[in-house]
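Table S7 (text form). Paired inputs.
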Amino acid sequence: MATLNATYEKQKKDAFSRSASFSKEKKHWPKPEQFVGTYQDQWFGDVIIKEERNEFRITCQRSPRLKGELLPYSNNVFIIKWDDRSYDADAYIIFNYDENGQAQSALLKPISDVTDFSFDFSDLNLNRKGMK
């Protein structure tokens, strides 16, 4: 168990460190209009991504406790830092852009390989509402 915890902590530390570095380069961040909006998964329902008080937030409509801050990681990836820190399940949200630079969909992936499988991030297929 100690090895799993150490693995998780190292993967999380590495991800947040890279995010902190990328956060300093705002000119490389995607523009809010490129990815802010409502995304839908057939099973999970609506997931809302919005800009609020100079930060990006995610809220899952069917699971109100699943909400958190989006931390920039690369030009198409953010880290979801869940508000409820007891989850120990921070994740990447990876946006898929079309040829015009507009997010069409998004996938989630746990930051760590040892994240509890019950979060089922890989089962989500978020499609942006109102996009072709």
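Next pair, protein 2 of 2.
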Amino acid sequence: MGKSVYFSDYELQLLIRAFDMANFSAEVDDQEEEERSYAAAENIREKAEKAYRGY
């Protein structure tokens, strides 16, 4: 189930930087959970970037 959240342009820029795979660290012990965390981080970054760019 999805939820709507609204961010300012500046907040979107911060999300994009925070979830950039070069900077993101999952910091979990379980390999499967780590992979899930990295996949979620990439999805968040992509959604934030699309929202920021307007598409």
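The longest helix spans residues 31-53.
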